[in-house]
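Retry 2 of 3 after timeout on previous attempt. Resubmitting structure tokens to design endpoint.
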């Protein structure tokens, strides 16, 4: 095979082969970026939260009886609710918490190692002694909250959180408290990079000290920015007349639906003067990831369509070339060219076109990726992904060329004289 005549023949049809090379380039640029986005989305879809998602539900009880305006009354009902929930035959345990896994946001604040330290933002949630067990998270250092740690009285909470504390010129309260805290490993790494955080303290903007008593392995709650693994917990209960009281409930495996149907009756037996909202985490997670799941499906469809159209274009161009050059092929066959020579000719011609398109496509893919990163928080395209895309396009091009090239190789030498 002599590449010179093939290249010269292609140069006489620059527009035809140029358009095909451009199609290959656009396909590589779009497909590579789509695959990059799909891989990033799938990482999020399969990311472990650290919770027993399939066994969790949240129940919100909102009162409409004036008796609930009395804090002591509300605290008593809260204790009775937890007792009833934990006694339910389908329930493993329950906790008083407004946190809902996969809710796509939550509460956050910032702490400093000391007054002059850099602030580091973290999610922050109130928790009781059953919180970690309910979520199913793993404690890797220290201990969980005990019942004695948890501040349960609403009146005490109001006093602790009062804003009228006397403060110095910098806004720090003159009288501060020390709060036991459990933090995630991700937050511990940022706040205490030198080693174990147990027993160490950090402080909030009021000057209150937070002392680490435990570290948990994983805790992923998706946020709009990169804070999902950083979390801090403090031992307090939650609930108000206006916002109601929320419970996280961990059910026994396979009991989610049954408990969901009976949970209102369980709480209603404690006190009927409330309305209830029940949400299981399986549904919450599915809805949160719904847009990403849809995006993966749409991008996958785009990839399939683009590859099909490109392969169809290559096949159509090769078929047209074979039909156009029937006399030329017959002449070459009459002069002694074998079928393998004709087949190689068309495959090599396609390889050159695809290669030019791939070279252009790599540059286009990188340019498109840079433009995307300016608009969205996406992944950088990798050399491995571009190399994989190039190999796939070469293979697709060769397969699309094979059938019309074989048809050309079957042209008989008599075709040369038939068209004279």
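Retry 2 succeeded. Sequence:
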């Amino acid at each position: 095979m002599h590449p010179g005549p093939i290249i010269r023949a292609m140069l006489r049809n620059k527009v035809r082969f140029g358009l095909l090379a451009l199609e290959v380039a656009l396909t590589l640029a779009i497909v590579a970026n789509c695959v990059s986005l799909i891989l990033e989305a799938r990482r999020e879809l399969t990311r472990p939260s650290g919770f027993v998602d399939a066994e969790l539900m949240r129940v919100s009880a909102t009162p409409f009886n004036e008796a609930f305006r009395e804090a002591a009354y509300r605290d008593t009902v809260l204790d009775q609710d937890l007792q009833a929930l934990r006694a339910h035959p389908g329930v493993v345990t329950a906790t008083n918490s407004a946190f809902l896994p996969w809710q796509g946001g939550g509460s956050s604040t910032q702490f400093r190692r000391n007054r002059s330290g850099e602030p580091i933002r973290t999610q922050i949630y109130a928790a009781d002694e059953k919180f970690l067990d309910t979520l199913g998270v793993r404690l890797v250092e220290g201990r969980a909250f005990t019942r004695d740690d948890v501040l349960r009285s609403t009146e005490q909470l109001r006093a602790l959180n009062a804003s009228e504390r006397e403060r110095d010129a910098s806004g720090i309260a003159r009288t501060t408290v020390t709060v036991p805290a459990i933090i995630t490993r991700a937050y511990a790494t940022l706040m205490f990079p030198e080693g174990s955080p147990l027993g160490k303290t950090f402080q909030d903007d009021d000057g209150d000290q937070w002392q680490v008593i435990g570290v948990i392995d994983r805790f992923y709650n998706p946020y709009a920015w990169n804070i999902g693994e950083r979390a801090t917990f403090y031992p307090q209960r939650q609930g108000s007349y206006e916002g109601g009281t929320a419970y996280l409930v961990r059910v026994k495996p396979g009991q989610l639906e049954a408990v969901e149907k009976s949970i209102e009756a369980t709480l209603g037996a404690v006190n009927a003067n409330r309305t209830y909202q029940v949400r299981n985490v399986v549904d919450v997670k599915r809805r949160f990831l719904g847009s990403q799941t849809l995006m993966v499906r749409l991008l996958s469809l785009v990839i399939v369509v683009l590859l099909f159209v490109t392969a169809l274009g290559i096949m159509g161009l090769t078929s047209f070339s074979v039909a156009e050059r029937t006399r030329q092929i017959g002449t070459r066959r009459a002069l002694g060219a074998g079928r393998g020579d004709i087949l190689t000719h068309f495959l090599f011609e396609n390889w050159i076109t695809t290669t030019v398109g791939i070279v252009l496509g790599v540059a286009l893919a990188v340019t498109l990726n840079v433009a995307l990163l300016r608009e969205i928080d996406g992944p950088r395209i990798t050399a491995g992904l571009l190399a994989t895309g190039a190999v796939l396009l070469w293979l697709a091009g060769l397969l699309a060329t094979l059938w019309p090239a074989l048809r050309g190789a079957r042209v008989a030498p008599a075709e040369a004289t038939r068209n004279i």
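Attempt log closed. The chain has a mean pLDDT of 86.
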